[in-house]
Design goal:
The protein has 360 residues and is α+β, with helices and mostly antiparallel strands. The protein is built from 9 helices and 15 strands. The protein folds into 2 domains: 134 residues, no CATH class; 166 residues, C8orf32 fold, CATH 3.10.620. The strands form 6 sheets. It has a 5-stranded antiparallel sheet with strand order 9-14-13-12-15, with helices on one face. Strands 1-4 form a two-stranded antiparallel sheet. Helix 8 links the parallel strand 10 and strand 11. It starts with 40 loop residues before the first strand and ends in a 5-residue tail after the last strand. 52% of the residues are buried.
Length: 360
């Protein structure tokens, strides 16, 4: 099963045993994978959302993993890009311009610790550097070198949110901004090690107990506390004692009980997928993640560009945390098992995001 790529439209499509006769139509831009925001947003939408990000950062010393901009959710990488473009639009007298979101993968090795003051000229240069880097590379930069030192992506995002909040409150861009450092974070895993030998797919993790808490709670379309999810999780894991056996029972049930349907992004969520017994790759992942979390197993979403026998497409799947390792759980294909992916090449996949809450 795969998620087809359509420029500016997120899509999830079955490709396990289906020949795509219009393959070239779906490969216009490999960065525009499943879940890329579908519609342009206004600069005003970005300014409004920046207030939420600023408040969250000041309370949690971190940038939220997803941000609502207008009527749609975007990842923090996408929102960093949107803020950079918004600052540039405002500076160029185009405060009413729209911005087209693009897929942005996390920085692979974020670094940089700095504080100080950036003049308006300095932060305009920063915004331009960030926007250009993301458009060229499809990911956040590890850092940006400024006149006060290397700024990591979290600090960059927080700084730009403060610039936009000032603009919202005062009707103009500030003459300067004081930079306050926020500790950099990666995409949610460390020491990644995927192999295609035997098609196994696991990720070593140094995730702390506190870091795992976000992978155990209800999130958008992952209704962990819904009675139907709770009941099925209890039924599937009854009498099982090991985390592996519980995870395997959940994975096998979703793989064998949920059929595949073609449509774009999330449609049903975990509860709807369970009710209708069908879903695309996003909704398969929602159900796996919700059932695992309901059974006390940390679970998260992966989003990437994957090569299937029929071609290369955007795709979404679940990962389950068992015995201090993350195991892939792609329930869209009968060829896969827990921790083993045979329906696409894990050695060549490009990871675009790792999420506690799937933003599309």
């Amino acid at each position: 099963m795969a998620c087809l790529l359509i420029l500016n439209v997120g899509a999830c499509h079955a490709q396990d045993n289906i020949t795509n006769n219009n393959q070239t139509d779906y490969q216009t831009n490999l960065h525009a994978a499943a879940g890329d925001a579908q519609t342009p947003v206004t600069t005003g939408n970005v300014v409004t959302a920046a207030k939420t990000v600023k408040g969250y950062a000041e309370k949690n010393n971190a940038i939220p993993s997803t941000v609502q901009v207008g009527s749609q959710n975007v990842t923090k990488g996408q929102f960093t890009y949107l803020m950079a473009q918004a600052i540039l639009n405002i500076n160029n007298g185009k405060a009413k311009a729209t911005i087209s979101p693009i897929a942005v993968s996390p920085a692979p090795n974020p670094t940089g610790t700095t504080t100080g003051t950036l003049t308006k000229s300095n932060y305009i240069t920063l915004a331009s550097s960030v926007a250009n880097f993301i458009k060229t590379n499809g990911r956040l930069p590890n850092y940006v070198t400024t006149v006060i030192g290397k700024m990591n992506p979290e600090t960059i995002a927080y700084t730009m949110s403060r610039i936009l909040v000032f603009y919202n409150d005062n009707g103009r861009l500030p003459n300067y901004v004081t930079v306050k450092n926020i500790k950099p974070t990666n995409s949610g895993s460390s020491g990644s090690s995927t192999t295609n030998s035997g098609s196994s797919s696991t990720t070593q993790g140094n995730t702390s107990n506190s870091g795992l808490s976000q992978y155990l709670v209800a999130t958008a379309n992952c209704q962990v506390n819904d009675p139907s999810i709770q009941a099925l999780a209890s039924q599937l894991t009854k009498g099982l004692t090991s985390e592996w056996d519980k995870a395997k029972a959940i994975f096998n049930w979703v793989r064998d009980s949920i059929s595949y349907s073609f449509y774009y992004n999330t449609r049903y969520g975990a509860v709807g997928t369970l009710k209708y017994r069908t879903g695309n790759c996003c909704d398969h992942a929602h159900l796996v993640v919700a059932l695992a979390r309901a059974a006390g197993i940390p679970a998260r979403y992966k989003h990437g560009i994957c090569t299937f026998s029929s071609g290369t497409y955007g795709h979404v799947w679940a990962e389950l945390y068992i015995n201090s390792k993350w195991y892939s759980a792609d329930a869209t294909s009968s060829r896969n098992s827990l921790g083993v992916i045979n329906s696409w090449n894990t050695a060549t996949a490009t990871i675009l995001g790792t999420y506690a809450s799937l933003p599309f």
